[in-house]
Design a protein that fits this description.
Layout: H1 7-30, H2 37-50, E1 54-55, E2 61-62, E3 67-68, E4 73-77, E5 80-82, E6 97-106, E7 109-118, H3 124-141, H4 150-163, E8 167-168, E9 174-176, E10 183-187, E11 205-208, E12 211-213, E13 219-221, E14 228-230, E15 236-238, E16 241-246, E17 249-252
Antiparallel strand pairs: 1-6, 2-3, 4-6, 5-14, 6-7, 8-12, 9-10, 9-11, 11-16, 12-15, 13-14, 16-17
């Protein structure tokens, strides 16, 4: 069941979303050559606690992993797509890219967002990967309008990414969000005809999160049971925003 939010609920989600935005802006500054992904984790955990919020990911049980997630961030470097775990031994170096994904629960409502940050100078191909992934999200945001259908959002990501020579990860998708981190509907980054194609209505909130590979789309999960990587070792980028359907068009809750 898709839960539509009232104006008051959207305001609460806005507060959660802005906290996530503030955290990611700080981490963008922290993700420099010589920093470890655990440095990012420590910074984020303190910001969440200082704001009186709860981390959305820490303690989240995933049956496929057989355990609850231990961290407030997912930090996925280079060929890692999603769910990379912070590690003091994972030191960022020039030319890396790191996807930083985090969420919070504040006053009963969730916010969730992700960015991918280049560490120093990266190759032209990697710059293009980041740009096209971010563009695909912006194009999709514009389709989160009352009267459109879910496939309008999904297909917009797919078309832009593939037209630019990159590939869409199939195994991981976006989602509805509200009082639960993951709500209906699922939001693939491609048109999945096996999925339902609901019409978008005011009060719906979608977490749209393109995960885009420089090479082939296939993903595999590492022995840690969490970290998803590209099967061919190519770099992967990930951006995410939470967007509300309103009478005035798309409202991105996870940025000012």
């Amino acid at each position: 069941m898709i839960v539509r939010k009232t104006a008051a609920e959207l305001e609460k989600m806005r507060r959660s979303g802005l906290l996530v935005w503030q955290i990611l802006q700080k981490l963008k500054e922290t993700a420099v050559e010589g920093a470890s992904t655990m440095d990012l984790e420590v910074t984020a955990a303190k910001m969440i606690a200082d704001a009186g919020a709860k981390p959305a990911f820490q303690g989240y049980y995933v049956p496929a992993a057989g355990e609850a997630y231990k961290f407030v961030l997912c930090t996925s470097v280079n060929q890692e797509i999603v769910h990379g775990m912070p590690n003091a031994k994972r030191v960022l170096k020039k030319g890396d890219i790191v996807s930083i994904d985090t969420g919070v629960k504040l006053d009963g409502y969730y916010g969730d967002s992700a960015i991918t940050v280049p560490v120093g100078e990266v190759s032209e191909q990697t710059q293009k990967l980041l740009r096209v992934t971010q563009e695909s999200l912006e194009l999709a945001i514009d389709r989160v309008r009352s009267g459109n259908r879910l496939f309008d959002v999904c297909g917009t990501v797919e078309e832009h990414v593939e037209r630019n020579g990159f590939s869409i990860v199939r195994e991981y998708v976006g989602h509805g969000i509200g009082t639960q981190l993951h709500e209906e509907p699922q939001v693939p980054n491609y048109v999945d005809r096996k999925n339902e194609n609901p019409r978008l209505k005011e009060g719906m909130v979608l977490a749209v999160e393109p995960m885009v590979n420089a090479g082939r789309p296939e993903a595999v999960v590492m022995k840690d049971r969490w970290t998803a990587v590209t099967k061919d070792g190519s770099y992967s980028a990930h951006f995410e925003h939470c967007i509300a359907v309103t009478e005035n068009g798309p409202w991105v809750l996870t940025r000012p």
